[in-house]
Amino acid sequence: MPIHNSDIARIFNQVADLLEISGANPFRVRAYRNAARTIEDQPQSVAGMLDEGADLSELSGIGKDLAGKISEIVETGRLQMLDDLEQEMPGELAKLLNIAQLGPKRVGTLHRELGIDTLDDLAQAAKAKKIRDLNGFGAKTEKKIREELKRHKGAQARTKFAEAEQLLTPLLDYLGGIEGVKQVAVAGSYRRCKETVGDLDILLTCAHDSPVMDRFVNYEDVSEVSAKGKTKSTVRLRGGLQVDVRVVPQVSYGAALYYFTGSKEHNVAVRKRAVEKGLKINEYGVFRGTDDDEERIAGASEEEVFKAVDLPYIAPELRENRGEIEAAQKGALPELIVREDLRGDLHAHTRATDGHASLQEMIEAARELGYSYLAITEHSQAVSVAKGFNRKRLEQQIAEIDQLSDELSGFRIFKSIEVDILADGSLDLPDEVLAKLDLTVCSVHSKFNLSVEKQTERIIRAMDNPHFNILGHPTGRLINEREAYAVDMEKIMGAAKERGCFLELNAHPDRLDLNDRHCRMAKEMGVKVAISTDAHSTAGLKNIRYGIDQARRGWLSKDDVLNTRRVADLLKLLKR
Ligand code: DGT
Ligand code: CA
Ligand code: CA
Ligand code: ZN
After folding, report:
1. d(CA 55, CA 64)
2. I need a labelling partner for 53 at 20 to 30 A (CA). Which of 82, 282, 436, 566 fits?
């Protein structure tokens, strides 16, 4: 690996930073910075000069000691002294330098005066308004640091699908409205409907003279333009999400859409397959022949691309190289579930607990979605913050639903409850009242940090109760906010299968719990999944599409999903 002058300069600058943070003699710090500058300014490669036997200590500002260190870097690619300094430096002190307002001097002050070692420490100190009083800081700097910390956090995290969707929809409209633009499509993980996206990848075709890139980088939500070119531009939106836009030729549109939809792993596997057939596949098309004499045999549409490599069309949600190529080859791809396959929703709250709409309003909204049933699942008493139901209130609601049901035709309200699974695995309401319900959704809302064994045992014990039907949001994770609690999902699914229980795929965009792999596991283990919204409002029922996306990523078909059944069939399945 060749060592460039810039590599040496970077290492010396890092040494200077760390020395300065630790409060070393300013002359020593300056010596490293000067050396870094000298090396950077050299017209020739310093590594090459050493090769030719040059004496580097003849360079200005480079003494014997520094010359020795340069040799070390050129020979080993690293510097022991820097490694040592990094070892001594507590935690992530060097990472603090990534905050725009902080140089090594300020980082040193923060460390010595407030004991700040990490970005978290920094955030806390800023929040507690401790930074403004330090020498050389002030309230304004403190505020800027807080803003910068927020930006950093936002920029690093992956963005939830539904959040990305909100940013993407107006952007696609905007791009589609620019003169000369013909086709606009989103590719990447977004098109694969991943629960979170790293960035957005947009493709478009347009007339040669379209001002699309100028207009794109001037989009109102753009906060930073990282690159702008004729065929590719990259920007950051104000919330931190990155967007790549590529202009592709019409003849390559399908090939580019296919390539940039990914996943990378899927692409690599298909490319290998193409090579075995004597074909080349890339973002411009599928080609036959040698490099000098190649013929494009496909490229304008994705269908064409698949056909050229002798595969049936594979839905974007499946393109993860998790067996979809083999399945496609055998004609064994699943017929993926679509929203219209669902006949109802099995998890919804009303105003009676922490929902926002009345029972009637929720039913009206469900009917508008074309459903023929809705389960009303209030919280149970353990969830006191949500005004969870005790036995008496549940019985009142049961009576209310019975009355309302008499007036309804062609629609079934399922009497239900989202009953808590208590720490010992018992359910939060007595069996006598659970027996009056059509079905139950049973959820864990407390004691998230039990061991895997204990948590798994707790849930399986709950399933032993004959009134247990559906395990609600089975891992409790909140995307980007709360990790899943530790459970042995295979064991849980095994137990569910044995007992005739089901697992929920909670469609709320912050949950999407089960995740895609767990959905696939459920399918393989023969455990049916209920795709439910956990709606707390009429609008919440529409989140069902996120659940459908996730289910498709988990290979689920109509038959794998509980709430594709007609009322009578569903009730039969629910009988244990
Ligand atoms: P993300 O953004 O992290 O959520 O995931 P993706 O899948 O959107 O990845 P991204 O944005 O880096 O690239 C978009 C697509 O471009 C990716 O899914 C497949 C394709 N791609 C990118 N780099 C490569 C590569 O090195 N080889 C191949 N075969 N495809 C690539
Ligand atoms: Ca992407
Ligand atoms: Ca990208
Ligand atoms: Zn819940």
Report:
1. 9
2. 82
What residues sit around ligand 2, an ion, with C-beta below 5 angstroms?
Answer: 188-189, 199, 201
User: 570 and 449 in one domain?
Assistant: yes
| Closest to 486 (Cα-Cα) out of 535, 526, 453, 527 | 453
Judge contact between 431 and 390, C-beta under 8 A: no
Q: How confident is the model at residue 155 (pLDDT cuts 50, 70, 90)?
A: low
Length of the chain: 576
pLDDT at 97: 86
Q: DSSP letter string over 245-277?
A: EEE--GGGHHHHHHHHH--HHHHHHHHHHHHHT
**Same domain, residue pair 67 and 140:** yes
Where does a domain end: 139, 154, 169? 154
Ligand 1 lined by 56 (C-beta under 6 Å): no
Per-residue pLDDT reduced to its tens digit, 219-256 = 999 999 999 999 999 999 987 899 999 999 999 999 99
Domain containing 168 equals: 159-247
Q: How many angstroms is it from 250 CA to the middle of ligand 2?
A: 22
Closest Cα to atom 18 of ligand 1: 262
Q: How far apart are CA 22 and CA 33, in angstroms?
A: 16
Cβ contacts of residue 134 below 8 Å, gap of 6+?
109, 110, 113, 114
Identify whether 114 is part of a domain. Answer: yes
- CA 269 from chain centre, in angstroms, equals 23
Q: Ligand 1 pocket check: which of 156, 194, 226, 264 to mutate, most ligand atoms within 8 Å of Cβ? A: 264
**Spatial separation of the C-alpha atoms in residues 438 and 275, rounded to whole Å:** 56
Regarding whether 540 and 490 lie in a shared domain, the answer is: yes
| Amino acid occupying residue 52 | E
Q: Is residue 397 located within the same domain as residue 441? A: yes
Ligand 1: distance of its center to the CA of 126 in Å?
37
* Confidence (pTM): 0.77
- Region 306-334: mean pLDDT is 97
Tens-digit pLDDT profile for residues 251-276 = 999 999 999 999 999 999 999 999 99
